[in-house]
Each structure stands twice: as structure tokens, then as C-alpha cells.
Amino acid sequence: MAKWGEGDPRWIVEERPDATNVNNWHWTEKNAGPWSQDRIKELFKEIKVNSSEADLFIKGVDRLDGEASANNRKGKLIFFYEWNLVLNWSGKLTNGSDRQFKGKIKIPNLSEENDVSDLDIQISVTDEDEEGFKLKEIMIKYGKQIIRNQLSKYISGLKEEFSKGMILPKKGSEKVETVTTLTSGFNKKINIEPMTIDVNKQIGLKIDTTSFKQTQKFQCTAQEFYDAMTRIEMVTAFTRGSVKLEPVKGGKFELFGGNIVGKFEELIPCKKIVQSWRYKQWASGHFSTVTITIDQKSDHTEITLEQVGVPTGELSVTKDNWQRYYWDGMKQAFGFGAFFT
């Protein structure tokens, strides 16, 4: 670690002849959206569903909404993807009336939040008479596993394709070090230490509150820290849970399984973030105000957190949870190399 006042050598671009992302220290990102759309459409084009009871085909993608990206920080790859799919299917019974039926297959949340084996796959048929209903049941029986197999191919292909070129060799070496591949962590659950709020408190009851201030020093740029607080893929990476995030003034956020909710009151890129912020367990309707000031120095970025309106009895737990789930979480996810004061 650099001494105060000296430049951190990991930030000095001359360490590599191409002056690119020294030692893979900075967050880099590739947009995997266009590739993902092409790949998913390719995987579901005219797929036969084998069954002796019917002639069934998944015809193709009817609608595909979402996004995907591959991110690198300090030699760790984090993949983020979230898609809503609608597929078309058609078929007829082997011993039926020879009528051709059509239907839809909806997959509302293909993401790291859901393992492929647990995906909600909804299959419907346009004409659900006796014959149509039977055909739909056959598609459910034999088609779901084919769909899961194709989606698994997409996920493995995404990670293989977008691992290429994301990790650069270090100074004096043309060899890329072993890559640690991380997911966004949707399947890892974090249980924030619960509040001990009196359940008998009513809205409008005066609550004794207090405030506190924390200062953190991170080995990252102001831009990287600001992104870690406002970009959904980065917030997902360090919170290790499902995230809802609208990083605009007045936009809402929901983190840690809904335990933390609020909205953005002010956003000054790389300088300041102001939030209305509350624990779900706090008395109904009570919000605190969080102000995060970002100050980039020569060899680190200093973060000042001030939180006003914290219920007095929850001060210690709130401070500890900022340390554990925000600051330590960022250090582990991004290698910010934090040192605390």
C-alpha cells in the first residue's frame, strides 16, 4: 500500500506499455446485451420437443427484454444478467384431430437470482379445449427441461465468451493469471442484524433520534466508488442479494431483501450522494437522511458518511451494519483495499 502523499503504483498507467488498466485494478465492463440477444434467439430457433404423444416445436423468441454485462475488478469477473423471455411454440397430437395448436412460453426472470433449475416457466396454449389442454400438458412435461438446457447453454456461453480479454497480463508478463469468476451473488443471502424496534410504536409517535459520522479511505477512484453505490450490477455484487435501484433524483432503492429502502434526494457524480434511508424494521414511516461525500485524493478516495435521524436505540447496530455490509462488502467484492479510521 502506498504511503500518504505518494501515488499508488497500481494507478500508474506507465506500468503497462499499452497504458491499460494496470494489474486489472480498475473496474472495466463489457456490454453483453447484444451478444446475449443473438445467442438466446439462436438457442430457441426451431427446437424439436421429443415426445411420442405429439409433434411439438419451440418456434422462436417472441419477446426478449433485459440486459447483461461482464465486469472485471482486480482479476475477478462478475457477470450480471436479467432477462424476461416470451417464446412461441406449436404442435399437434400424434393421435388427435390433426389440428395445429399454438402457444406461449413465459420466463419472467432469468437472472442470478434464480437457478436455472428453479426458474418459473409458464406455458400456455391459445385454444385450451380438451385437445389443446392435453397438448399443453405434454409441452410442460417434456418441454421445460429442454428450455432449462438451452438457458444453461446461454449462461455458460456468456461466461466463456466474455471472459476473453477481460483480464490483462501484469507488467513483465504476457501470461494472464488464474481468473476467479464470480456471479452477481443473487443466490447468496445476507441477513442484516435485526432492529429491536418496539412493535407497539405508532405512526406519529415522537421518536428519539441521533446522528453519527464515519470516515472511510478506499484504494479506488471517486468514479469507482460512486459507481459502486449507483450502478445496479455493482450494488448487486457487494450486497449479494436482489437489488432494486433507480439512481436519479427521487428514484427509489431497495437492498438486502428489502431490509433497507429509501430514495435518492441528491446525486452529484463522484462528489455527493444524499438519500432518505430506513431499515424496514424501524417505526413505520420513519426515515433518516444519509449524506455521503466523496473526496478523491492523490492515492486514495476518502468517504465521509453522515446519517441524521437514526433512532437512538439503534445507533450502534446501524453503525456496525454500514461497516459490515457496505464498506466490508465493497472491499470483498471489488478489492478496494480499504483501510479504516
Radius of gyration based on Cα positions: 25 Å
Number of helices: 5
| Largest sheet strand order | 9-10-11-12-13-14-8-15
Low-confidence stretches: 1-25, 174-191, 194-203
* Termini Cα gap: 16 Å
Output the structural class.
alpha+beta
Q: Give the mean pLDDT.
A: 81
Summarize the entry for a quick read:
The chain has 341 residues and is α+β, with helices and mostly antiparallel strands.
Structure in words:
The protein is α+β, with helices and mostly antiparallel strands. The chain has helices spanning 33-43, 130-161, 222-230, 232-239, 315-334; strands at 28-31, 47-49, 54-73, 76-93, 101-111, 122-125, 180-183, 209-218, 244-245, 252-255, 260-268, 272-279, 288-296, 301-311, 339-340. Helix 1 crosses helix 2.
Q: Which structural traits does this protein have?
A:
341 residues, disordered N terminus, 7-stranded mixed sheet, 5 helices
Topology at a glance:
Blueprint: E1 28-31, H1 33-43, E2 47-49, E3 54-73, E4 76-93, E5 101-111, E6 122-125, H2 130-161, E7 180-183, E8 209-218, H3 222-230, H4 232-239, E9 244-245, E10 252-255, E11 260-268, E12 272-279, E13 288-296, E14 301-311, H5 315-334, E15 339-340
Helix pairs in contact: 1-2, 3-4
